[in-house]
Amino acid sequence: MRKHRPRVGLLYNPTTPQLLDYAPSLVEHLSVMPDRLWFDFGTEPMRGRRFHRLHEAIDRVKRDTVGRMLAGHGLGLSLPSAMPLDDAMVAAVADVSRDLGNFAWYSEHLNLFITPKGGVPNAQAGLGLPVIYDEETFSIMAPKLRRLRDALSCRLLLENGSFFTPVPDLDLTEPEFLNRLHRQGLSGVLLDLHNLLVNARNGGADPIAYLESLDLDAVEEVHIAGGDDAEGFYMDSHSTLTPDYVWELAHAYLPRCRNLRAITFEYQESYFEELGLPALAAELERMHRLADVCELVPEPVDAR
Asked: How many CB atoms lie within 10 A of CB 205?
């Protein structure tokens, strides 16, 4: 046994600096979305420039990450899509990582975001679409993950997705697919516990069964968040504090995640005023108590 306490942090958004000013000691880790630090004008931009970087925002992130662990979190690469890897975006992510002092790891969503649409090479679907877990998808993703890892020179994690409806009769379950990626050294897991609740509420897998099938040694970061109901579905809207059921899952399973490095709370900036600084700080304090529970764990296996 040794001490191995995961750090407590936030997914960075434009209101994060206010929370950092209010409760600086409660945030040990920040996860930054490079996609929010530039304007992407597409694969055929005017004047030859595709990515227009937001220098003021990047400078603010630099200041806010001093003394904190930094990770990258993206959704624009749409790794399961049956389309070539967007090498220009990979290069842009790598540039942001270098500018910010290098990501400790980089995560992407295990969702489809980019779909073919006529002559448009990268058409955004508008929401995360479910993935078909089979040999073909694995063969699409494996070389992309290797190239992305080489470009960023850091650990890669994949986040379990949230869906409105399950896909039946798959060759592999999502945990089995993630376990295989981990066993072959292609990626670890960013476990989003709220996404498990979203999927269960929308007719998907039972969260307990999911977690019992997942190799918990693959889990290196955990997301928690809250959502709400809309039009008969439960939404991953990041609009509320973390539901009690997600906390129950966290306390039951996170101490078993021997390689866990960070616990990250997500909230949408549009709900910042409604949530309020005192409630957000209290959420971080609750996360610290959870991290303390995870502190004494068996020696991590292949944490880097």
From this structure: 16
Q: How far apart are the first and last CA of the chain?
A: 18
User: Tokens 């390689």 sit at which residue?
Assistant: 259
- Residues in CB range of 215: below 8 A, 6 or more apart: 175, 178, 179, 182, 183, 189
Structural domains of the chain, with CATH: 2-297 (3.20.20.150)
pTM: 0.92
Say if strands 233-235 and 262-265 run parallel, antiparallel, or are unpaired.
unpaired
Dihedral angle sign, alpha carbons of residues 9, 15, 21, 23: negative
Q: Helix, strand, or coil here: 113?
A: strand
Exposed/middle/buried for residue 42 (C-beta within 10 Å: 0-12, 13-18, 19+):
exposed
Percent of the chain exceeding pLDDT 70 equals: 89
